[in-house]
Design goal:
Beta-galactosidase, Chain A, domain 5; alpha+beta; 9-stranded antiparallel beta sheet; 391 residues; 4 helices; 5-stranded antiparallel beta sheet; globular
């Protein structure tokens, strides 16, 4: 992008740039480079953060110490929780010094700056928008393209990793929704030849309003992956992921999906034999049935950059929440009108009739990307490159 748009500093805490096709829901990029405002599930959800979801970089110059950072500017502003941040914010992980956002809808660029990182990084993100083509403009996904440049005089081994948690299945915590999840999420590594990445699902009926799929994919063949983080009562999965990434920039699948072998302490079952320290340890399958149902996975792209080399590390984030409740959830007065009993309570989103799940939408976006991006860039140039005064 030409950087015509006014720069927005990372300290602009309310700045958010929408990503997502028309009528498909949105996730936004904040000025720090963070993914925020996850509104994929057919209802408004401003300020919703997706737990343990972020991109990171590991850069190892030949003959020098490696540097690992979350690809976001440092956190600013007040944090009023009892501990400042929740566990899921992972606020203790090292971040970059600064970031600057430039947006020309539907395209946004974020320029990162850091005194320690041995490479330069920018993020170019967009969802296709093609005037008069509703289907091309209504893809439930977004392209996230990290451009890394090596300004030094030695090769740098670079890994860019996206970690994502599924968003489906939320419910009011209780017997029907342990840990606030109505179903257990799933995640697996999938490689279809041209497209590879993380494929998320959930153990709910496909016609359930809470059912949904999510994917983080790439067409790059040089990948590293941790398909599923360790699940436990505490943030062990985040600690183990970060230790793995900082070690050598390559991820290893976890041999065990939980470190727990029985409910303990605050989580022990009152009066139950599982609270007995001498009780038989639970199997991994038994233990996972008692643990939080959220699932997180990580996908990385790995390349070595020669001095002066520039390379793109490109990901696609896509989603599908096909079942929308007919109505407005009390957000406008029409909800007070009596409903027509002849109308179904659940409506299938149009995008779900084109692509049955998130993976299918991602595969289409990858396959059609050159033409879609060219048409989108032409629209941006026509809208922002003219001689009319800005509004």
């Amino acid at each position: 992008m030409t950087r015509r748009a006014r720069p927005i500093p990372h300290t602009a805490e309310r700045a958010a740039f929408l990503l997502g096709g028309i009528g498909t829901g949105n996730v936004s990029l904040g000025a720090r480079g963070e993914l925020r405002d996850w509104e994929l599930e057919n209802h408004p959800d401003k300020d919703r953060r997706n737990p343990r979801t972020f991109f990171a970089i590991h850069a190892a110059p030949q003959g020098a110490d490696p540097v690992t950072r979350v690809l976001e500017a440092r956190v600013t502003g007040r944090r009023d929780l009892d501990a400042g941040f929740s566990f899921d914010d992972l606020a203790g992980l090292p971040r970059l010094d600064a970031a600057t956002m430039h947006g020309e809808y539907p395209v946004v660029d974020i320029d990162f700056a850091d005194r320690v990182l041995p490479v330069a990084v920018t993020l170019h993100a967009f969802t296709p928008l093609v005037p008069l083509d509703a289907d091309a403009s209504g893809i439930p996904g977004a392209v996230l393209r990290y451009r890394v440049t090596n300004p030094g005089d030695a090769p740098v081994a670079v890994t860019v990793v996206g970690s994502v948690s599924h968003t489906a299945g939320r419910g009011e915590p209780g017997q029907d929704a342990p840990w606030g999840m109505r179903g257990t999420q799933t995640v697996r590594w999938r490689d279809d030849g041209d497209v590879r990445g993380l494929d998320f699902g959930i153990d709910l009926p496909e016609d359930d309003p809470g059912y949904g799929t999510l994917s983080l994919t790439t067409t790059d063949t040089s990948t590293t992956v941790k398909p599923q983080w360790v699940t436990s009562y505490w943030p062990d999965g985040a600690r183990m992921f970060w230790s793995d990434l900082t070690d050598d920039g390559l991820l290893v699948p976890e041999p065990r999906l939980t470190l727990e072998d029985r409910p303990r302490g605050l989580f022990a079952e009152p009066g139950g034999h599982r609270a007995d320290p001498d009780a038989r340890p639970l199997t991994e399958e038994e233990m996972l049935a008692k643990l939080p149902r959220l699932r997180t996975g990580s996908l990385g792209i790995v390349h070595t950059l020669a001095p002066g080399e520039e390379r793109d590390f490109e990901f696609t984030l896509s989603w599908s929440f096909p079942n929308r409740r007919r109505g407005w959830h009390g957000h406008i007065v029409m909800d007070d009108e009596p409903e027509d009993p002849a109308l179904p309570p659940i409506v299938r989103n149009h995008y779900a009739t084109l692509w049955p799940d998130a993976w299918a939408a991602a595969a289409h976006l990858h396959r059609a990307l050159p033409a879609l991006e060219a048409a989108t860039d032409a629209f941006v140039e026509a809208l922002y490159g003219g001689t009319l005064d800005p509004v």
